[in-house]
Backbone:
């Protein structure tokens, strides 16, 4: 890496940060476009969250010129190991979500489709492959991967998706295979199997990064990841209060750092500050909606390109999404992280994501959440793109209604592909569902 | 003005618009139905004028709007979804609850109604118009058969040719190619109806079947649909006397409940 190149990178980062700071200050002084007569006042920290995520992507833009290596990983990949080796980590799924909320996903997906990738594939995969093909992105520029890490604990699509990326970028692919958990506990051989894969991944990641992994650094990253996950869990648990101070829709936005910046100190600071703001809101009786009457659970990924509509349709009737199995997934595993045994505990932690467990487990999670957050009903997003998350929802819906007496709505959509979203039909179903709830 | 007309219901559907006026006892005293027009607001204004001409005093008689165009009804005292309105409307005719299958122009609904008349659960066709009136309408138009003859012609044959495509548009091409192969019209029609009914049966089963099975919507006038649905479900199907007006009637009943004298 040449000296001038490094200097240019530093100047670029400084300039970018100044621009992001300016954006934040402007945003803080501006009312947001969302309907504040229906919804509660926006979080003060929103603008800071946006700046934090913006800085993360800015850093990526200059990662290579600063001599850092870049890893692209799946959302359930054991990232602590990579962070400890100073990889700059890209989460294509998070990037997909950014494209979804920025309403640019459809354009890049059609690039992937034109290249022969079927519309039946996951819309995150198509957004990512499309972005790799055409280079268009709302985050400026995404650095090329020096390493790809796919972990099968979220779905099997990643196996093929990352092979496509490996081919496109001629980058080495590390595969972490996590056996599906049919029962409550992972059998010892499954934990051992994942642990050995992680041990074998270490020399590969070391070779690519050009650095040696130290236990001390790994423990430090694991500690930060654990603390941030605990804080995130606490953020969500503040919604045990009535009115709920932060809707699950707001959580979908504020969850970006816990996914893509887990293990960074600024993520811990961010969630600590968010918790402080929520406590203030609770003390002042401020809710996510103006007049909270019904409290709901959301299952599955969000519909990224319609967050605001959903918040407003529900909010107009005094309904609020109080909890979601999706945001919960990034907090519930915190107790499994053991910073003193980082690799061993990672082997266990990364076996336990909700998508790597049975449909019965998900039902039990939802039932627990109904009690914990005192909820009135459930919206199950049947996500065309995410089969592992959507499978079982018809039975889960029936069981929630019959066993728990909670009306549940199955809403067909897609997390990132707006072409699979029928505006009038969705609004009509939601309205009819809210009438059943008696809002 | 006709003082008997106490409340009004307007159902602005995707295919037809219906307006109903009822008396104090909830009896339907006046109604009007016409094809839906693209300029919804203008049509709504005209229908409301029509109600005025028929003697409804909209200063005192509340109006509840339902259907896809309900939010475009200026002057509605309330808007309520067609799910709730259908449940409310059918209760008057068939008290005691059950499963109502409403087959409209662009959507089909299956509504599980409690014995008390509340909506317990519902399912609707998603994403496409297969299993709706539009499916039959398109096919009938392609075959040059008048809508009112569809049911009779279908039931006149005991032979049946399976239609494999559930897509409204693709089913049309399938029908054309069958005709080109020399297959008779009636068995094709029976196959088309079977395809529609099976989509409905899947929705009914998804809701968890409960008796009695009730039928409404424009398509309920087609006797072949009721008969095939009954065959598929293995139990009788009861058809509303005014199948197209159930939603508007339910809206009117909801409006009647809003009158101060009844509060």
Residues:
């Amino acid at each position: 890496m040449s000296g001038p190149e490094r200097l240019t990178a530093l100047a670029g980062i400084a300039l970018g940060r100044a621009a992001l700071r300016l954006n934040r200050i402007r945003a803080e002084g501006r009312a947001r476009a969302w309907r504040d007569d229906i919804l509660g006042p926006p979080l003060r920290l929103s603008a800071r969250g946006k700046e934090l995520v913006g800085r993360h992507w800015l850093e990526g833009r200059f990662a290579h010129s600063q001599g850092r290596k870049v890893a692209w990983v799946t959302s359930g990949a054991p990232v602590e190991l990579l962070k400890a080796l100073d990889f700059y980590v890209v989460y294509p799924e998070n990037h997909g979500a950014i494209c979804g909320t920025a309403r640019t996903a459809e354009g890049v997906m059609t690039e992937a489709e034109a290249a022969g990738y079927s519309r039946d594939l996951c819309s995150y995969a198509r957004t990512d492959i499309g972005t790799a093909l055409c280079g268009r992105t709302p985050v400026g520029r995404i650095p090329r991967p020096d390493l790809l890490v796919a972990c099968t604990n979220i779905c099997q699509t990643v196996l093929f998706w990352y092979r496509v990326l490996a081919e496109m970028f001629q980058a080495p692919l590390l595969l972490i295979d996590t056996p599906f958990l049919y029962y409550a506990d992972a059998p010892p051989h499954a934990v051992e199997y994942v642990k050995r894969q992680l041990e074998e991944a270490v020399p590969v990641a070391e070779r690519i990064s050009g650095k040696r992994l130290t236990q001390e650094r790994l423990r430090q990253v694991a500690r930060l990841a654990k603390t941030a996950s605990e804080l995130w869990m606490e953020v969500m648990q503040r919604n045990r209060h009535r009115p709920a101070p932060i809707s699950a829709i707001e959580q979908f936005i504020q969850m970006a750092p816990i996914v893509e910046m887990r293990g960074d100190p600024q993520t811990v600071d961010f969630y600590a500050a968010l918790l402080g703001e929520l406590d203030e809101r609770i003390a002042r009786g401020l809710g996510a909606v103006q007049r909270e009457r019904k409290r709901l659970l959301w299952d599955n990924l969000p519909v990224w390109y319609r967050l605001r509509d959903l918040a407003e349709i529900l909010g107009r009737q005094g309904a609020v999404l109080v909890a979601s199995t999706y945001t919960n997934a990034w907090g519930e595993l915190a107790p499994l992280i053991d910073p003193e045994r980082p690799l061993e505990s990672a082997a266990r932690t990364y076996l336990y994501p909700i998508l790597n467990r049975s449909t019965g487990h998900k039902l039990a999670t939802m039932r627990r959440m109904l009690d914990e957050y005192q909820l009135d009903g459930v919206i199950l997003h049947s996500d065309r793109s995410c089969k592992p998350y959507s499978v079982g929802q018809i039975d889960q819906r029936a069981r929630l209604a019959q066993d728990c007496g909670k009306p549940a709505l199955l809403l067909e959509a897609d997390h990132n592909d707006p072409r699979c979203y029928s505006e009038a039909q969705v609004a009509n179903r939601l309205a009819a569902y809210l009438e059943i709830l008696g809002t | 003005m006709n003082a008997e007309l106490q409340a009004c219901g307007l159902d602005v559907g995707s295919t037809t618009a219906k307006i109903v006026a009822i008396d104090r006892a909830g009896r339907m005293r006046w109604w009007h139905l016409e094809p839906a027009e693209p300029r919804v607001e203008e049509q709504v204004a005209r229908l409301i004028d029509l109600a005025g001409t028929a003697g409804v005093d909209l200063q005192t008689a509340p109006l509840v709007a339902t259907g896809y165009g309900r939010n475009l009804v200026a002057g509605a005292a309330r808007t309520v979804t067609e799910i709730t309105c259908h449940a409310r409307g059918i209760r008057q005719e068939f008290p005691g609850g059950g499963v109502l299958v409403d087959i409209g122009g662009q959507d089909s609904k299956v509504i599980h109604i409690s014995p008390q008349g509340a909506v317990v659960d519902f399912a609707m066709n998603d994403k496409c118009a297969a299993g709706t009136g539009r499916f039959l309408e398109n096919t009938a138009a392609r075959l040059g058969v008048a809508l009112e003859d569809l049911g009779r012609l279908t039931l006149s044959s005991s032979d049946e040719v399976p239609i494999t495509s559930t897509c409204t548009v693709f089913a049309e091409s399938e029908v054309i190619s069958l005709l080109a192969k020399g297959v008779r019209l009636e068995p094709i029609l029976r196959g088309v109806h079977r395809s529609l009914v099976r989509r409905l049966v899947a929705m009914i089963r998804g809701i968890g079947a409960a008796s009695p099975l009730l039928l409404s919507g424009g398509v309920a006038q087609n006797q072949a649909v009721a008969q095939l649905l009954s065959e598929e479900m293995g139990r009788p199907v009861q058809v509303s006397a005014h199948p197209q007006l159930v939603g508007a009637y339910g809206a009117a009943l909801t409006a009647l409940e809003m009158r101060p004298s009844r509060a």
Notes: Residues 185-207 of chain B form the longest helix (23 residues). The mean pLDDT of chain B is 91. Chain B has eight helices and ten strands.
